[in-house]
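Hi L.,

You mentioned the student needs an example of a multi-chain input paired with its predicted structure. This one should do, with 574 residues in total across all chains.
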Amino acid sequence: MRLGAARFVGYFFILPYLIFLALFLAYPLGFAVWMSFYEYFFAAPGAVVERPFIGLENYRNLLEDETFRTTIGNILVFIAVNVPLTVVLALVLGAALNAKLPGQAFFRTSYYLPYVTASVAVVAVWGYLFFGDGLVNRILGGLAPEPSWLVNEFWAMIVISLLVTWKQLGYYVLLYLAALQNVPRQLYEAAEVDGAGTFGKFWNVTVPGLRPVTLLVVILSTIIGANLFTEPYLLTNGGGPVDQTLSPVLYMYQRGIEQADAGYAAAIGVTLSVIVLLVAAVQRFALERG
Amino acid sequence: MKGERRGRFSPGRILGFVALCLGAFLFLFPFYYMLAGALQAEPDPGISGAFPSPGELSITNLREINERVPLARALLNSVVYTAGVIVGTLTIGILAGYALSRLRWRGRSLVFNIMLLTLIVPFQLLMIPMYVMVVRGWGLGDSYLGMILPFLVNSTAVFIFRQFFMQLPEDMLDAARIDGAGELRILTQIVLPLSRPAILTAGLITFIGPWNEFLWPFLITKQADLQPLAVALANYISTVAASSANPFGAILSGAVVLSVPAVALFIIFQSYFVESETSASLKE
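Structure written out for the whole complex:
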């Protein structure tokens, strides 16, 4: 009797979550795809506008859109700097933290600090460090790039990539630290018997033992990179020198909100998501076989 | 790296310690520099500016930013937005977590799998349709409700509560059931008083989302007096800063005000943050 009632009561408890899931996830997801097949422009409130079905035309235009191609190229530069750097630094710092050295709690806290701080605040101080007359250039003196970092076609995206690496790294360090607890101790002992030194053990035991986490780190940092918006918007005035820091999401914002072409922006969003899923699948395949 | 047998001062351990120190410097210096720049009345981006003497420090910049971006109002908006998201997320998360761990019903594992899938849907994909829906469709632009609602789908919070509730002994709940207590009563009077660590963890993780969020509130607020601090400061950075005497000083003061609550909460409750984030992600 009571069991039957409990079976029924479960739906009441899960209902609020399901309602929000449907309204703010499932519905917008479907709406995004639907919208991308229409010429969906915003209009002034109350005005009636036609929003004709145009099939794949948004996607066809997207394929020929030079700016969209630039944004994809930009994000590839971002990922090429961000992902390898993230994996290497997080792995090294995670392993160093795991060695039970003095001051562990202090180090863990300091690495995690940027992760809990707002991007807007972080951008403020990075902008101060990297502007033409800023501390970084003062220290570099004659070695400073010309034009300066954030207005330099080559360097602007790389600085943004370093900023995001710095901001997110603490989270990945902790992922590695947690995973290191699960690498079997016997493997280290066996390697020691085989005469492996500190480096040998790190390379032959630690690195392979952490492969599942490395996959997670690679995929997560790729997804975060593909969603880049705040940093280029604020640090390089919404796109930087000749669009060299224009990210796909920033472009989506320009087309969808500023220029009111929501259908086209939705097509950008869908295409970007498909690309990210494909890249993640390739990464998974490569890392699981490698 | 667990080579404790090789003595306390093996080359590997010394190298590791040097790496940790170098890392700590790179992570902490920008925070120190943010504070130094915020407190200097005269901007000094040179090397000496990184070591201001106490006599140079003042809160002129804070006054300057407060004139352009009324901080009290912006902070109030941030607090309302964040508090709304936390209360909503915890309520939905506790109910859903309880249903997914302690109640039996058809479709439970399906819902759990869908929940895991939602963790990979990027918000940015939903940005345009969500904007059309919330601002154009429901007329919730320039409102707290419009800012809060989309953030209440928080599968990480549901996941934290589910994991925590699963560890509670079944006997205890069954005893209450035999005494005739309903599930809602069991949840609020027996389970929740035991769940303070989970509530704190989920609350803290939820906090950094809306408090630091820029994109969504930026999209839906046109009225300056409804913007949370992150948005107001960003607007100041991208538009007004050029007309200011010491734009960097004012911006950095704003950045300090924005960072302090999150950093302070994190340092006070760091053990909760660290353990939960990693265990939650590894089990995804």
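You could point out the following to them. Residues 1-6 of chain B have pLDDT under 50 and may be disordered. The radius of gyration of chain B is 24 Å.

Best wishes,
N.
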